[in-house]
Amino acid sequence: MSRRRHIRRWITLLLLLSLLAGGIWIAVQLTSSVRSEGPELCTVDVSGDKFQLTPDQSRYAALISAVGVSKGLPPRASSIAIATALQESHLRNLNYGDAAGPDSRGLFQQRSSQGWGTEAEIMDPYYSTGAFYKALVKVPGYQSMPLTEAAQTVQRSAFPEAYADHESEGRAFASSLTGQSPASFSCSLLPSTGAGDPAAAQKEFAKAFPTLHAEVSNRELRVSTSGTTGWAVAQWAVANAKQFGIDRVDYDMQTWLRENRDGWRATQSSGRQVVITLASGPGA
Asked: What is the pTM of this model?
């Protein structure tokens, strides 16, 4: 081996080691950043069963539950619907299908060719959730039959047993987001980067809970309600905190704060009103 070739190999080796060291340093910095601020996640804790979703997934789970509550359906219906959406789309509003169902769309991967509606309708999560519930309530005894059987009767999937994989998760999120399990749903989020939009939050709230009214005052939404419906609204607000820049939710002497990563805290907050406070923006 010539001296020149030997030197080139050593130079190449040193360059590779430098790149590797740089990559390790970057990885360490990224890891430190994640550890210091934490990933944005939403957690449900019901009777010791804990599950996590991203904020985007959580707002769809909250939407599904809110539609069920607004229709006066039992929490079991929301359990079935959330478990089904977890299996079909991982709680994402997908605008594509798969080889078995190329025209499948939305949270429930419903197909226009099977009479679920137009593609535009199915891509509307309120429409698709309503369509799912409309089909579910026609299933005799759906509340008492195994979840996977109820879901399969509605969906007619090629993998009918897969829904059972999400039963516990669907039950926990439904119990929390329908208000049956108070103060059991919380999100850990990064600080708001701008002011929240009360009008946008009020508009979304009206779609989720059409029988309730949210008054807007400054940067607050106030909803007069009580009991489990109040907790459904309060935890819906937490699930939508990232989307609308919500910094605080108060209800039933409990408070959720965006900067608090320990969930709900007992406070002297409103008892019969859900108070949703939006971010005021930097320097406000």
From this structure: 0.85
